[in-house]
Amino acid sequence: MRIRVKVCCISSLEEVQMAIRAGADALGLVGPMPSGPGVVADDLAAAIVRSVPPPIATFMLTSETTADGIVAHQQRVGANTIQLVDAVPAGTYAQIRAALPAVKIVQVIHVVDERSLIEAQQAVTDGADALLLDSGNPTLAIKELGGTGRVHDWQISRQIVDTSPVPVFLAGGLRPDNVREAIRAVGPFGLDICSGVRTNGHLDADKLRAFLEAVR
Q1: 157, 173 Cβ separation under 8 angstroms
Q2: Phi and psi of 50, rounded to 5°?
Q3: What whole-number distance in Å separates Cα of residue 63 and Cα of residue 22?
Q4: Which of 15, 4, 65, 13 is nearest to 201 (CA)?
Q5: Nearest CA-CA partner of 15 in 193, 139, 176
Q6: pLDDT in tens, 180-190
Q7: What is the rounded distance in angstroms from the CA atom of residue 7 to the CA atom of residue 175?
Q8: At 111, is the secondary structure helix, strand, or coil?
Q9: 164-190 b/e with 16+ CB inside 10 Å = b?
Q10: Residues 40, 99: Cα–Cα separation, whole Å
């Protein structure tokens, strides 16, 4: 099965074109976060979404945790996929679906320890369309909800992949020189890349090309 690649932290129309030319399957747009790189204003995110041709998917990363806040954020941006970077209360997915029936929901699981297995199972039970395994730490005073550039425990990630009935994306510290190992170790449906293909915060065409060549 071909591994899908989502290029995250897209911050300009130029980066959109660079990622698409390189062969990205999806683009990620980072909304307001308590920490981490790549945040773009909603009006720029909306302009980027409008520029993306089908069938490229657009993921809106939101740190909102209420259904009303998440729905309002999506309506400002217009992305076809919502990436929830923090845990949300029970029943939130159903409320989002009632308001946005055509939009997919991807739940981020920050792989910290074995408890992440339970969080992943609960997200699937609640109705997430896909999972994304990252290396943040939502228990800190200032939450880390992505963009850390750290690798987490791929053994735990593999267990999540092996037991998940929905697609699982792998994120966290992926680079051209470790992505093949990551694929062998975890067996994900897709990969999510940000810092590993950037130089001084900007998308680097050479690094992105090397990453995609390593994947495919």
Answers
A1: no
A2: -65, -25
A3: 28
A4: 15
A5: 193
A6: 999 999 999 99
A7: 12
A8: coil
A9: beebbbbbbbbbbeebeebbeebbbbb
A10: 24
In angstroms, the CA 146 to CA 16 distance is: 20
CB atoms within 10 A of CB 44: 15
Q: Which residues of 9-18 are buried (b: 16+ CB within 10 A; e: fewer)?
A: bbbeeebbeb
- For 48-87, write each residue's pLDDT tens digit: 999 999 999 999 999 999 999 999 999 999 999 999 999 9
φ, ψ of residue 9 to 5 degrees: the values are: 65, 30
| Cβ atoms of residues 103 and 112 within 8 Å | no
Structure tokens at 158: 């593999």
Would you call 115 exposed, middle or buried from its count of C-beta atoms within 10 A (0-12, 13-18, 19+)? exposed
Cβ neighbours for 68, distance < 8 A, ≥ 6 positions apart: none
Tokens of 47: 């302009």
Length of the chain: 216
For the entire predicted model, the pTM comes to 0.93
Tokens representing 176 are 């051209």
DSSP conformation class of 197: G
Residue 84, strand partner residues: 62, 107
Question: What type of residue sits at position 189?
Answer: F
User: What whole-number distance in Å separates Cα of residue 82 and Cα of residue 102?
Assistant: 11
